Amino acid sequence: MKLTATTLAIVMVTLTACASGEASQTDSTSTEFDSAQTSLESAVLPVINEQMEEMGIPGLVAIVASPDRGTYKVAAGVANIDTNEPMKVENHFRIGSISKTLTATVVLQLAQEGKLGLDDALAPYFPTLDTNGATIRQALNMTSGIPTYTPDQFLNDLANNPARVWSPEELLATTVGQPAEFAPGAGWDYSNTNYVMLALIAEQHDRASLGALVQDRIFSPLQMTGCSMPAQADSTLPTPYSRSYQYGTEWDNPSPPAPKPDLIDVTNSNPSWGFGAGEAICTADDMAIWGRALVAGDLLDPEMQEERLDFVTGGAMPYGLGIAKLNGLTGHQGHMSGYQTQTTRRESDGTIIVVLTNITQAPDGELPATKISELISRAIPLQDK
Predict the structure, then answer these.
(1) The CATH number of the domain where 274 resides is what?
(2) pTM of the full predicted structure?
(3) Tens digits of per-residue pLDDT, 89-106?
(4) Number of domains in the chain
């Protein structure tokens, strides 16, 4: 499908909340509030239009919640390229590695409750695997040295059997025989294997599925009603949802700027290969709730939140215990078959920026939600006091 100017048109824009951040109806008599709304729209909308065209994004949803300017929500493009169904703010997306923040929160809560220690070794939990002498903390902050089960070839091979249901044990088994990346604590490497292990540890301690743990400990307390973590065999999404797309079948072979390869619909790919590292589903509104709660530490005590925000540097990004710093924004991005997402809070003033796209990545390998989030942050100056 060729993306046209009509396809990329903004199909829904809503502006809510007063300058203090409290939800309210728009008051047309308030010059100050109208000006704040206009300021957000004029800053965000050009970024979205330009980047959707540049990166060939079929559709996206974005939310910007500013302490000074209120909340701006926008749905752009289409949720289905075959029917041209307009994107909706309430559509569900797979959020990919943002799921790591959920898995990490459950593990940190278990540590807070004294059920495990952050410096406990991984080995007792996985007696048949080489855990490289690493600890739970090192798995959380990606310094374990344990190799990832998702090298480029694994991701490319997903296209050959998209319906396959992976068990967590099968995912871990793909790493058997692979050498460690480095001694524990001696480096940094973004390894999804860490978060499959952490999810299994959480399930073992609370004797419940990861989905049930995340529902009881995170989604329900924060009223994130559009979120779920599906069963391993479940490839469906709650309605309404955006279909998901990918330029070609390979993740590791960016295409030249033109011509773009065909868009492939990968909506029905089974997400079980993500497990605790990437299989959650949410809406943009839920991600705005989580973007604030994650950084504020709403579900942890102050001491444990301080542990979470102890960032290690020297890798691709400063990384804490299931949380990252991304170009002046704190939170996490996600990358799943057909979706690329990000929820973050701007460190300078607390502005929440959520971007959910229905494409794995741009043809040149660029991560669209991550790039757009950074550009939105740059486009919204700090409010003069």
Answers:
(1) 3.40.710.10
(2) 0.91
(3) 999 999 999 999 999 999
(4) 1
